Amino acid sequence: MKFRKIGVLTSGGDAPGMNASVRAVVRTALENGIEVVGIYGGYHGLIHDNVKYLTARDVSNCISRGGTFLLTDRCDEFKTPEGMAKAIETCKKHEIDAIVAIGGDGTFRGATDLTNHGIPTIGVTGTIDNDISATDYTVGFDTAMNTVLDMVDRLRDTGESHARCLVTEVMGRHCGEIALLTGMASGAVAIAIPEIEFDEDACIKKMAELRAKGKRNFQIIVSEGVGGIGSGFGENLAKRIEEKTGIEARYNCLGHVVRGGDPTLRDRVAATRMGAKAVDLLLEGKSNLVVCEIDSEIVPVDINYSFVLDKMYKNKLKDGDLDAYSAEQIAEMEAFCERKRAYVRELYDLANALAK
Ligand code: ADP
Q: Architecture of domain 143-259 in CATH?
């Protein structure tokens, strides 16, 4: 056994299921004779020594709860050499040999920095956006989508009563998967995501035709990343639809409500498997990995590989990014990106085809 004591933290945007991951980390570690230090408030808590030993009882009753009892924060200080030095000091003070960091992309960048500074760290996904390309699934995604679905079903009721169009903006940052899947599942007439150019003229033409045939309510789901976060795309789209079709249109932004709520079964199971796997990996002496779900298997992926794959998928590769990888690995990454793009396109086309 390599470790006697590990730390666990949640960082960045919260996601339903983070508590379930912490529970799995704590109980798997304790079962293996490893003590667990809970770090409160993400990397800020690590820098400012906000820690507490966790027992198996401390994680009772949290598997079913949303949010994160370990609290979370965004901490720019952690990106500075001084902040990192303080974080390492906290680890030394409490003899923390390794860390499990639960969060998203930013959290994993911090995890890599910690590993490079001598504290082996493993990342576990906790982000509603499903925006980490290396994994099929991120913890929180299912709960967030079910919350969106509940809200959009309600909007459909009022849309049908008033014969209105409801344009609903949902979170997702630069990834449109929440909008894509909830758009399909709510029977939206149109979906706007950053991955695929939105054909507004076609949407407006289709709506006018459907209205002429008697369709009363129109749901449109817009991902916040379309046109750039904060661009006002969804709100402006609602105005243009009303102007051009005469269909009364209302805009709703679901915002942070989608981050809360008790995790679904899907999220609790993924969180539990991923949290336990993180500890198993540390016990095997491994680090700088992100625990992923690929084809229903819980598997580790090198964090740096996951960053590069993400950049490739988002067409953001820079010179030198691929230098560390063999031709075979690059071909594998390209094939992966193609499959992912085809999957998004397939769902998008199917949802559109059925929107009548
Ligand atoms: P998420 O993990 O949900 O993507 P953030 O992007 O806000 O959320 O990142 C969470 C925290 O991780 C940040 O507040 C910061 O402390 C740390 N972090 C983010 N990016 C980096 C980076 N490039 N290098 C080191 N640490 C980072």
A: 3-Layer(aba) Sandwich (3.40)
Spans of all domains in the chain: 5-140+263-303, 143-259
- Minimal CA–CA distance to 221: which of 238, 205, 209? 238
**Mean model confidence pLDDT for the chain:** 97
CA distances (Å), 197 to each of 191, 308, 345, in order? 10, 24, 11
DSSP H helices, 48-163, are 81-93, 105-116, 141-162
pLDDT band for position 171 (50/70/90)?
A: very high
Residues 91 and 46: their CA atoms lie apart, in Å, by 8
Would 5-140+263-303 and 143-259 be classified into the same CATH topology? yes
Q: What is the pLDDT of residues 11-43, one digit of tens each?
A: 999 999 999 999 999 999 999 999 999 999 999
CA nearest ligand 1 atom 27, residue: 110
Which of 46, 71, 78 most suits a substitution to test ligand 1, by most atoms within 8 Å of the C-beta?
A: 78
Q: Could you tell me the pLDDT band of residue 3, with boundaries at 50, 70 and 90?
A: confident
Q: What pTM, to 2 d.p., does this model score?
A: 0.97
What is the distance between the alpha carbons of residues 124 and 21, in angstroms, rounded to a whole number? 8
Find the 76 Cα to ligand 1 centroid distance in Å.
8
Reading the block at residue 314, the tokens are 């988002």
**Predicted pLDDT of residue 22:** 98
Q: Does the domain spanning 5-140+263-303 belong to CATH 3.40.50.1970? A: no
What pLDDT is stored for residue 78 in this prediction? 98
Contact 187, 241 (CB under 8 A): no
Hey, whose CA ends up nearest to atom 23 of ligand 1? 109
